[in-house]
């Protein structure tokens, strides 16, 4: 790599890192950060350590990265949690760089790192307090280690490293269960494929042995989270697979039997989930909710590369880049048998296809649920671009023309990414906060309209009392007072109570003194529930709630012990 090329790449990386840091340097307002990725670590810090919160289902999820977020929360610098998350994007780019460099050289490796970092989905994740970039990093490390092991299966340490990284991915997010399953299937298969010309039958036992070793080490690393959940709930992967483990689990009390707010919330959630019935399958969801035809739905594995849109479930809640599909397809068409990394390409392609197909069949597609396919696709896209360049150089008999066409393709990849980053800058609008023209509270209030009433609740609610948050999307991070943000608490009580006064008495008995509620969504719930429940809930709101503040559609109310005369 020439000095000029090194300088250009260094400048590109530095500018990108600075851009992400600028975008990330604002208070956290993304949903998952406020529901659990920051909210649960904040509760742990306040409670002096990791402890159970039965009212927060997310607190039972694997939380390897959330444990790391305790440090910035404890220090009062929650914005730094975004930098921690972004660090995993940089580490993944480093893995891609090192893997590609050993195969096809440093220039292509540097380009592949930028392919990854500038992708719209990665940019969006880089400026939020989520855990997906950690999941991507650990899964990529597992996949790349497995690929290196398959080159020389005598180096078992690479298989062990792959298993450890897979276990760390499982400890980061339950979504890793899918990638763990895919890797557990692919490793024995590709081990046998490696020996297909020798004596594959003699290697079958070894394939099983290595597959079992991978699974065992992965689960061993994951086991602390499994043990924790089993000891608390009787279900090692709670709240998943509750039907499977229901018989072994100790039955929790019913909402009427619960004596504290957290246990009552958990019982209410369980009760309401039982009434909800079986969720719609992904195909039926697409037909009924998104009004798509079956044929169009079946194209989702291809559509995800072209139709992604942030914050819109219909369009998979995130954006990729079309060339992330087209360049690997070009590799498939143009690559010769002697190309470097042929077996790696098969492994990465099989991994990406299986991940997409499994998620498509199991869930209504979201980009973050298949995000671990991005690094292997980036490697394949880089291989595809290099193959195109080599073919052009041969056919055009001109390195200059080949470079020009390749440059156009590279520009076609980066231009949509840059336009997305520019649009995201306008949405995040970091300059007023970074320059000090807007303070922390004002920035949050702009992006989270419930913040005003939460601030007042933090000032008014006395120690020992508790706030009930209703229809807030489970966002509880900015509560500084004891709060349970679970809709099912109120809906369960309203359904089981004989009158408005009984609703008030039960809430007060559980320690609730105030309610923060999204008024519009509360009214929607009243129209969707049965007439008796709606009547009792409306009477409770009219007779037993004293309005303290209504702002931007959110209200703060005090629960009065008796209806006014």
What does this structure look like?
With 565 residues, this protein is mainly alpha-helical. Helix content is 65%, strand content 5%. The chain is built from 27 helices and five strands. The chain has helices spanning 3-24, 31-37, 39-47, 64-74, 80-104, 106-117, 120-126, 132-151, 156-170, 176-194, 204-233, 242-245, 261-276, 282-288, 294-298, 300-303, 323-334, 342-362, 374-396, 399-428, 431-434, 440-447, 451-460, 487-496, 500-509, 519-528, 531-544, and strands at 466-470, 483-484, 512-518, 545-551, 554-559. It has a five-stranded mixed sheet with strand order 2-1-3-5-4, sandwiched between helices. β4 and β5 form a beta hairpin. α9 runs antiparallel to α10 (176-194). The model has no long low-confidence stretch (mean pLDDT 89).
Topology readout:
Elements: H1 3-24, H2 31-37, H3 39-47, H4 64-74, H5 80-104, H6 106-117, H7 120-126, H8 132-151, H9 156-170, H10 176-194, H11 204-233, H12 242-245, H13 261-276, H14 282-288, H15 294-298, H16 300-303, H17 323-334, H18 342-362, H19 374-396, H20 399-428, H21 431-434, H22 440-447, H23 451-460, E1 466-470, E2 483-484, H24 487-496, H25 500-509, E3 512-518, H26 519-528, H27 531-544, E4 545-551, E5 554-559
Parallel strand pairs: 1-2, 1-3
Antiparallel strand pairs: 3-5, 4-5
Helix pairs in contact: 1-6, 3-4, 4-5, 5-6, 5-8, 5-19, 6-19, 8-9, 8-10, 9-10, 9-11, 10-11, 10-18, 13-24, 17-19, 18-19, 19-20, 24-27, 25-27
Count every beta strand, where a strand is a DSSP E run of 2 or more residues: 5
Strand content: under 5%
Indicate the overall shape.
Answer: globular
Structural class: mainly alpha
Spatial order of strands in the largest sheet? 2-1-3-5-4
Rounded to the nearest angstrom, the distance between the terminal CA atoms is: 84 Å
Number of helices: 27
User: Low-confidence parts lasting 5 or more residues at pLDDT below 50?
Assistant: none
Determine the fraction of residues in helical runs and give it as a percent range: 55-70%
| Rg calc | 26 Å
Overall pLDDT metric: 89
What about the largest sheet? 5 strands, mixed
């Amino acid at each position: 790599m020439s000095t000029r090329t090194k300088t250009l790449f260094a400048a590109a990386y530095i500018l990108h890192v600075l851009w992400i840091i600028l975008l990330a340097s604002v208070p956290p307002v993304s949903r998952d950060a406020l529901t659990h990725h920051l909210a649960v670590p904040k509760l742990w810090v306040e409670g002096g350590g990791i402890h159970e919160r039965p009212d927060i289902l997310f607190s039972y999820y694997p939380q390897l990265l959330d444990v790391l977020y305790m440090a910035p929360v404890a220090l009062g610098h929650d914005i730094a949690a975004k930098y921690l998350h972004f660090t995993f994007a940089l580490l993944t780019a480093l893995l891609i760089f090192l893997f590609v460099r050993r195969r096809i050289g440093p220039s292509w490796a540097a380009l592949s790192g930028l392919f990854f970092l500038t992708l719209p989905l990665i940019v969006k994740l880089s400026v939020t307090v989520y855990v997906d970039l950690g999941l991507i990093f650990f899964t990529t490390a597992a996949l790349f280690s497995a690929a290196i092991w398959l080159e020389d299966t005598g180096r078992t340490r690479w298989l062990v490293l792959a298993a450890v990284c897979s276990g760390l991915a499982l400890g980061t997010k339950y979504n890793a269960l899918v990638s763990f399953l895919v890797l557990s299937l692919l490793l024995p298969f590709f081990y046998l494929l490696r020996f297909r010309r020798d004596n594959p039958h003699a290697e079958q036992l070894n394939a099983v042995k290595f597959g079992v070793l991978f699974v065992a080490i992965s689960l061993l690393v994951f086991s602390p989270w499994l043990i924790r959940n089993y000891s608390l709930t009787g279900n090692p992967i709670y709240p998943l697979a509750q039907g499977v483990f229901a018989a072994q689990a100790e039955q929790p009390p019913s909402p009427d039997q619960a004596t504290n707010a957290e246990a009552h919330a958990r019982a209410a959630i369980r009760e309401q989930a039982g009434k909800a019935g079986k969720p719609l399958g992904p195909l039926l969801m697409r037909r009924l909710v998104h009004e798509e035809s079956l044929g169009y739905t079946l194209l989702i594995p291809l559509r995800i590369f072209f139709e992604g849109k942030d914050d819109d479930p219909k369009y998979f809640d995130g954006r990729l880049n079309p060339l992330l599909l087209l360049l690997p397809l070009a590799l498939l068409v143009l690559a010769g048998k002697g190309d470097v990394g042929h077996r790696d390409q098969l492994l990465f392609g099989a991994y990406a296809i299986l991940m997409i197909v499994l998620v498509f069949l199991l869930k209504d597609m979201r980009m973050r649920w298949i995000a671990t396919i991005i690094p292997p696709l980036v490697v394949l896209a880089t291989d595809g671009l290099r193959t195109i360049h080599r073919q052009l150089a041969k056919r055009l008999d001109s390195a200059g023309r080949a470079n020009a066409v390749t440059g156009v393709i590279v520009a076609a990849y980066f231009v949509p990414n840059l336009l997305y980053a520019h649009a995201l800058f306008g949405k995040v609008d970091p300059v007023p906060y970074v320059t000090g023209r807007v303070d922390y509270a004002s920035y949050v209030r702009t992006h989270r309209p419930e913040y005003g009433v939460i601030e007042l609740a933090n000032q008014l609610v006395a120690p020992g009392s508790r706030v009930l948050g209703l229809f807030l999307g489970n966002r509880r991070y900015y509560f500084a007072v004891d709060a349970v943000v679970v809709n099912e608490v109120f809906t369960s009580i309203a359904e089981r109570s004989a009158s408005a006064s009984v609703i008030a008495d039960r809430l007060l008995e559980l320690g609730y003194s105030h309610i923060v509620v999204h008024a519009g969504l509360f009214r929607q719930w009243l129209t969707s529930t049965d007439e008796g429940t709606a009547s009792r809930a409306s009477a409770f709101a009219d007779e037993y709630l004293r309005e303290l503040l209504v702002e931007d559609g959110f209200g703060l109310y005090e629960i009065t012990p008796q209806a006014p005369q």
